[in-house]
Amino acid sequence: MGQLGKKLKQARLEHGLSLEQLNERTKIQKHHLEAIETGDYSAIPRGFYVRAFIKRYAQAVGIDGDALLQEHRSELPEDEPEAAPAEHLTRRPERKKRSSGPVAESMPKVLVALFIVFILLVIWYFYLLSTSGNDVQQEEEGGDVEYEAPVEQPEEQPEAAEEQEQAPADEPEEQPEPEEPQAQLELESVSGETTTYTFTGPAEKQLEFTASGESWLSVLNDEGVELLSLARVFGASETEAVDISDETSVFMRVGDYTMLSIELNGETVPYEQQRKPQNIVIRFDDAE
User: What is residue 230's predicted lDDT score, i.e. its pLDDT?
Assistant: First the structure.
């Protein structure tokens, strides 16, 4: 047992608090409290979460948490390097600028050629008009023209006329309704402990988390803002939903993937890696 854990346990006993009562006061799991008192931090998420739990414990028993951490910093585990979601989320590949190549250089020549073709077509049109006028004049000046009697049109039968009047007008064809965009989650890449997906679907999006056992979870948007409560630890049968309609991408760090399922708009987000912990990034390409 480390000196830090001894001080916290002694202060708890002096305040007459049991581990169950301290759990209700701090909302920290009982076995995490026991791990802090014994100095066994392997069961607690490393880095920020260890220090956050110790400061909350110290505050509950009347001890200055910052001073306690500074005094016993040699007993604490080293911080793990935090994933930088900004590199995975905010930067998108820049589209290549269209270079002014041979096509751009040949455009003026093409336009000049089209203009010349247009002029030739106009000249040909007026030439045809002039030749057709001469043919008509020659026919008028020619010899006798045989007279053709006009062909009499048969009278329309009354019944046929009534049938035409009674025939209903063609009904306008119904326009097919536009199909709604279908949601699609595609695997983009797997690199290290990070899996990246691309989601195409409606603008309204919601993430839902369901725990079958204990697991911690952190969810950040592309600006690095935490979308869940700080140091969120799920217990068995706990669920939570997060509306991400206004986000362009999300970054999730999962402690124990075997205890936590993730759904996006009702579709399960699969775990491509068997890592504890691991990262999941989802980029959104809205169809609407």
Answer: 59
| pLDDT for position 138 | 55
97: number of Cβ within 10 Å: 6
Token pair for 191: 């690199």
Among the residue ranges 33-37, 80-84, 267-271, the one predicted with the least confidence is: 80-84
Give the C-alpha separation, 108 to 116, whole Å.
13
Beta strand pairing call for 260-264 and 194-201: unpaired
**Does residue 90 surpass a pLDDT of 50?**
no
> What are the beta bridge partners of residue 232?
217
pTM of the model: 0.41
Q: Is the pLDDT confidence value at 206 over 80?
A: yes
For residues 20-53, one letter each, b for 16 or more C-beta atoms within 10 angstroms of the residue's C-beta and e for the rest, the string is eebbeebebbeebbebbbeeebeebbeeebbbbb
The residue that leads in pLDDT, 96 or 37, is: 37
CB atoms within 10 A of CB 75: 13
To 10 degrees, what angle do helices 19-26 and 30-38 make? 110
